[in-house]
Write a structure and sequence with these properties.
The complex is a heterodimer.
Chain A: H1 2-9, H2 11-49, E1 53-57, E2 66-67, H3 68-75, E3 80-90, E4 104-108, E5 123-126, E6 137-140, H4 142-148, E7 155-158, E8 161-169, E9 179-183, H5 184-192, H6 197-200, E10 208-209, E11 211-216, H7 222-232, E12 236-240, H8 241-284, H9 286-294, H10 299-338, H11 348-374, H12 378-383
Parallel strand pairs in A: 4-9, 6-8
Antiparallel strand pairs in A: 1-11, 1-12, 2-10, 3-4, 3-11, 5-8, 6-9, 7-8
Chain B: E1 4-14, E2 20-31, E3 36-40, H1 47-54, E4 69-72, E5 75-76, H2 82-92, E6 93-96, H3 108-118, H4 123-136, H5 152-164, E7 170-174, H6 182-199, E8 202-207, H7 210-214, E9 218-223, E10 226-232, H8 235-239
Parallel strand pairs in B: 3-8, 3-9, 6-7, 7-8
Antiparallel strand pairs in B: 1-2, 1-4, 4-5, 9-10
Helix pairs in contact in B: 3-4, 3-5, 4-5, 5-6
Classes of the chains: A alpha+beta, B alpha/beta.
Chain lengths: 385, 240
């Protein structure tokens, strides 16, 4: 209480200092929330790709058609345990520009992974697709389901066709959230419509896939298997778990560097402004410090009181910064949810770190002026006007 | 044994490279327990410097003279750390200043309690004794006022309560009436006198006001950094 009274003596200056810290912590909270989201996506992706090899056509960003016969060729290779030939295409016919990951349709034959898929999806409502399904049925990822407010039993229009929603998934914080799972046959029919007539005339829809998920044998050398696949299937490109981590890890590292940068800037700016405020406050209170020292206040007490005051400035700035940051995160997520783009994830760890960081920052910045205050000669300080 | 003894006290302040002031040039002083002593002299005579040395706010220096010594209750304080000296100030001394020197953000009660806390009491214990001390000086009902809301005389009475709250062996008062009109001066001096008489509180005060000096048992006169006279006040004058 006495501390608050001390701060309220210098309302304008204290407010400006708190504002400086608030801005730093606000930026820290917002960027960290974004990093949390992206790191969760990347972690999910890296978990998803860890135990498999993704094979696509090497010529056109992995969306060009491949024949089902490629899957059969891969199945015969050494070290391959299961092959899941799929169709992947964009949920919307006309892809808009958006941040985050686009919504996808994945058509696959249920059970083709032969139980080797380690990334387990959990249902929120309804059921999974079964091999018996061959009509227009769909299991929706949580983000798609939430954005369109549908659950098992509803109907949803995808690329001009009415699909019956048989199930929706629990959030995973990564790719499956923005994925619609359909039977392979339905995806093939939609996929062929995206191809130029020249090609569509010469192939049957049920012969088409555009990505093949390969599960290697336990203990097989994944890179070796990937090399074999590239040799066996003309024009194919493979992506292993290690390659995924390498590619995505680089971009995550840049992002994390930005977060550290923001933290360092807020540390320097906020810290300097606390030092400045506390140094002026000490100068103003020179006489008072002289009184306290003269009547028996120890150096330790003087330092403790001033450091606590500086820490309180940091704590208040941190709490306000966290509040404003949380507000931005909630509003941006609310606005983004309609477009299926949830960019921020403010975790309790991030919140605690931000407030703890600014409090400790304030205290550390307070140490220097507090130390100089404690070193004052009480007699000289008493004469100070 | 004397409560307070100073031997060979010298103090030289260096104001510039070639500008030094010999504020004290070798002073011996003895204060007995229960005395009320005035240190008098014109400005620059060294009386405040002497008080700072006796109050452990500064240390004497040698300046080519014999080794100085300050003894409190027979114990030398020469080699004590800042921490220990601060502790001694908190526990065995009370300070009253010319310009009151209360902490402006704290209430009268909190100002008095501060001295108790510095001497090691818990905040609640210190607050309780502070309330008592304010009652001694007749300011119980002004306890929750800030210094700004009190008159000069009232502020000085708060300062006296603060100096007495730990029942210290020694109260050091530097021009305690310097900023007060004669009515409030008499009141403040009366309080110090009363505590000296009723509780045997030792009081050393610095003043250049002869009327204040006449209130005390003994007057030490200083000039140019030396003690030039040390004589008791006639009993009838002190009683007045």
């Amino acid at each position: 209480m006495r501390l608050l009274r001390e701060l309220s003596r210098r309302k304008l200056r204290t407010t400006l200092t708190i504002l400086g810290i608030t801005i730093g912590i606000w930026a820290l909270v917002v960027f960290s929330s974004m990093a949390n989201k992206i790191n969760a996506l990347v972690e999910g992706g890296s978990e998803y790709y860890a135990d498999k090899i993704l094979v696509t056509d090497g010529s056109a960003f992995g969306t060009a058609p491949m024949g089902l016969e490629s899957a059969d060729a891969i199945r015969d290779l050494d070290g391959v345990a299961a092959v899941d030939a799929q169709i992947q295409l964009l949920f919307d016919e006309e892809a808009g520009v958006s941040f985050g990951i686009p919504e996808l349709i994945i058509g696959a034959v249920p059970g083709a992974d032969e139980g080797l898929e380690q990334f387990q999806l959990e249902l929120a409502t309804g059921r999974m697709i079964t091999p018996e399904d061959d009509g227009d049925v769909v299991v929706l990822g949580s983000t798609i389901a939430t954005a369109r407010d549908v659950a098992a039993g509803d109907t949803i229009e995808i690329r001009g066709r009415d699909f019956e929603v048989v199930g929706t998934l629990q959030p995973t914080l990564t790719a499956p959230d923005t994925t619609a799972l359909v039977p392979l046959s339905a995806a093939q029919e939609m996929f062929i419509e995206t191809l130029p007539p020249l090609i569509t005339d010469s192939v049957e829809p049920e012969e088409l896939v555009n990505q093949i998920v390969v599960y290697p044998d336990a203990g097989a050398d994944v890179d070796e298997v990937a090399a074999q696949i590239e040799g066996a299937v003309a024009n194919s490109a493979t992506l292993t778990g290690a390659e995924f981590d390498e590619q995505v890890g680089a971009s995550t590292a840049i992002f994390n560097a930005i977060i550290i940068g923001v933290a360092v800037i807020s540390l320097v700016v906020g810290g300097l402004s606390v030092i400045n405020t506390m140094a002026m406050s000490v100068a103003e209170r020179t006489r008072e410090i002289g009184i306290r020292r003269a009547i028996g206040g120890s150096r330790g007490r003087i330092i403790r009181a001033l450091v606590a005051e500086a820490g309180l400035i940091g704590l208040i700035g941190g709490l306000i910064g966290l509040g404003l940051g949380a507000l931005v995160v909630v509003l941006a997520n609310e606005a983004g949810r309609a477009g299926g783009t949830v960019l921020f994830d403010l975790t309790p760890e991030t919140a605690l770190f931000a407030v703890g960081f600014s409090t400790i920052l304030g205290m550390l910045a307070g140490v220097i002026p507090a130390w100089s205050a404690a070193r004052l000669d009480p007699v000289a300080a008493l004469r100070y006007e | 044994m004397a409560l307070l003894e100073g031997r060979n006290l010298r103090k030289t302040y260096r104001l510039g490279r070639r500008n030094t002031v010999e504020a004290l040039r070798g002073v011996d002083i003895t204060i007995e327990a229960g005395e009320m002593v005035a240190i008098m002299g014109p400005s620059g005579s060294g009386k405040s410097t002497l008080m700072h040395l006796l109050g452990l706010l500064h240390s004497p220096d040698r300046n080519h003279g014999p080794a100085p010594e300050v003894l409190i209750d027979g114990q030398s304080v020469a080699n004590l750390s800042d921490r220990t000296r601060t502790q001694m100030r908190a526990k065995t001394m009370g300070f009253v200043f010319q310009s009151f020197n209360l902490v402006p953000t704290l209430t009268a009660l909190e100002n008095v309690a501060l001295a108790g806390e510095y001497a090691g009491a818990s905040r609640s214990r210190a607050t309780a004794t502070a309330r008592e001390a304010l009652a001694w000086v007749g300011l119980a009902e002004r306890a929750d006022h800030r210094p700004m809301e009190l008159s000069g005389g009232e502020q000085q009475r708060v300062a006296i309560a603060r100096s007495l709250v730990n029942e210290p062996a020694l109260v050091l008062a530097d021009e305690p009436t310097g900023n007060l009109d004669s009515g409030h001066s008499t009141e403040v001096l009366g309080l110090l006198r009363r505590f000296n008489r009723e509780r045997g509180q030792t009081v050393v005060l610095v003043t250049h006001d002869a009327e204040v000096g006449a209130f005390c048992d003994r007057i030490i006169r200083m000039r140019d950094g030396l003690i030039v006279a040390d004589e008791p006040v006639a009993p009838e004058a002190a009683a007045a």
